[in-house]
Amino acid sequence: MSQTAIPFHKARKRFGQNFLYDHGVIERIVAAIHPKEGEKLVEIGPGQGALTEGLLQRAGALDVVELDRDLIPTLKLRFGLNREFRIHEADALKFDFNTLKTDDRPLRLAGNLPYNISTPLIFHLLSFQGLIADMHFMLQKEVVQRLAAVPGEKHYGRLGIMTQYYCAVDYLFTVGPGSFRPAPKVDSAIVRLVPHKELPYPCKNTARLEIVVRDAFSQRRKTIRNTLKKHLNAEALEQLGIDPGTRPEQLHLADFVKITDYLEDTSC
């Protein structure tokens, strides 16, 4: 690890900052990412550079996207002498990741994502899934559980279904609060998202799929007959081989695609 002194920076609540400092956890995350020389690595929210150093050392080049301008001097101090280190001062929620695709290499994304924007950021990144080889993120443990959940589990819902439509999801390991400063009040976890080369359940209209899934889970305790009644009736569900009395958390991604394609085919 570098011996460069890190200037003090108070974590900001509005940016959802919790800085990772446990070197054992850092090494474990970098090992899970397994960056290689010549790959197109992108780190979202590098903060004070906990993961940045290991990623840059192994890949030889790194683009980082950081919103907090007060952290930019620290990053430049630690890594600015490397001409292959590039800082993009921007909000990752609005950042156009197409701008980083400069050749035929796919992007490999990584980062310790702020808890307060993790769900909308995941949805934003999914819109670029065609550019991405894989993503490794530290998130609140509950968010990772939602990403990886399967039908019948309590964490199963809109986030997991739409993520799994585009990606294979792998819950890697849990990280306790003591690995951060300041310590969060909840556990974190590392997740690997790998975009499918071929969608396992391709849908005719993904925008409609998002609406169907959102509406299905708008009232989790109600049956699919009730939550989707503005889209189709019980007879149509039975025609599709879906029990109208089923609750949304019991339906597979393939069922939601089947409903969406039916609506697409029968819409005016």
Structure in words:
The protein has 268 residues and is α/β, with parallel strands linked by helices. Helix content is 33%, strand content 19%. It contains 10 helices and 9 strands. The protein has helices spanning 23-33, 52-59, 72-79, 118-126, 141-148, 158-166, 206-216, 224-227, 234-239, 253-266; strands at residues 19-20, 40-44, 62-66, 85-89, 107-112, 132-140, 167-175, 180-181, 188-195. The strands form 2 sheets. The chain has a 7-stranded mixed sheet. A two-stranded antiparallel sheet has the order 1-8. Strand 3, helix 3 and strand 4 form a beta-alpha-beta unit. Helix 5 crosses helix 6. The longest helix is centred in the last third of the chain and has 14 residues, at 253-266. The radius of gyration is 21 Å and the shape is elongated. Mean pLDDT is 92; it is low at 1-16.
**Chain-averaged pLDDT:** 92
Question: Which CATH architecture of the largest domain would you pick?
Answer: 3-Layer(aba) Sandwich
Low-confidence stretches: 1-16
CATH class descriptor of the largest domain: Alpha Beta
Which percent range describes the beta-strand content? 15-25%
Number of DSSP strands? 9
Rg measurement, Å: 21 Å
CATH topology of the largest domain: Rossmann fold
Largest sheet: 7 strands, mixed
SS summary, helix count:
10
Helix-strand pattern: EHEHEHEEHEHHEEEHHHH
